[in-house]
Each structure stands twice: as C-alpha cells, then as structure tokens.
Amino acid sequence: MTGRSAIDSAIDEATGFKPEEWVRLLCPGCGRRQLAKRDETDPPGTHTVRVHCPKCNGGDFDEVFYLDAAGNELQFQEDAPS
Ligand SMILES: [Zn+2]
C-alpha cells in the first residue's frame, strides 16, 4: 500500500485536492506511475488504470486495464465509444 504522506495530505487539504476524483496510471512496461483525473468512461470503483505510457506504448493501440483498490480487474458495463 502506497499511502500519501502527511505533507501530501496537508497539501491536498490546502489546495482542495480530492483523491477520490483521481485515478492512478500504472505503466506495466517501466512501472511509471502518475495521477490522472478520473475519466467519466472509467468503470465505477476504478482505483488504478494499467496502461503503457507513451514511451513504452510506441504509438500503437494499447489495451487498458481498470483495477479497483484491491487490484481486481474491472469490466466495462457498457460499450465504450471507440
Ligand atoms: Zn512505460
């Protein structure tokens, strides 16, 4: 579990940052992590989005996996626009 530090939490509070509005992007290629604003197409309960970063992706279409806080894969409930 990678919790946020007390300083980060204090900054969140000062800036109005709401962790529940964000998801964590995780690149399975290089392990790079980044916070991203939750997208309305993300399945409910999305905690982590596993997708290759632009560096590892190489410009090809990449499969995206949505994981909940427990690391379980989430499935789309409806067809996503392509
Ligand atoms: Zn990468």
How much of the polypeptide forms β-strand, as a percent range?
A: 15-25%
Shape label: globular
The number of E-state strands comes to 5
Structural class by sheet pairing and helices = alpha+beta
**Element pattern in H and E:** HEEEHEE
Largest sheet: 5 strands, mixed
Could you report the average pLDDT, rounded to the nearest whole number? Answer: 87
How much helical structure, as a percent, in the residues? Answer: 10-25%
Number of helices: 2
Using only CA atoms, what is the Rg? 14 Å
Give the spatial strand order of the biggest sheet.
Answer: 2-1-3-4-5
Uncertain stretches: none
Molecules bound to protein: zinc ion
Q: Cα distance, first to last residue?
A: 33 Å
Brief digest:
With 82 residues, the chain is an alpha+beta fold. The chain has helices at 6-15, 54-57; strands at residues 22-26, 33-37, 48-50, 65-67, 73-74.
What does the model show?
The chain has 82 residues and is an alpha+beta fold. The chain has a domain at 18-73. It has helices at 6-15, 54-57, and strands spanning 22-26, 33-37, 48-50, 65-67, 73-74. It is globular. The termini are far apart. The model has no long low-confidence stretch (mean pLDDT 87). The structure holds zinc ion (ZN). Zinc ion binds at residues 27, 29-30, 32, 52-53, 55-56.
Fold topology:
Blueprint: H1 6-15, E1 22-26, E2 33-37, E3 48-50, H2 54-57, E4 65-67, E5 73-74
Parallel strand pairs: 1-3
Antiparallel strand pairs: 1-2, 3-4, 4-5
This protein binds zinc ion (ZN).
Zinc ion is lined by residues 27, 29-30, 32, 52-53, 55-56.
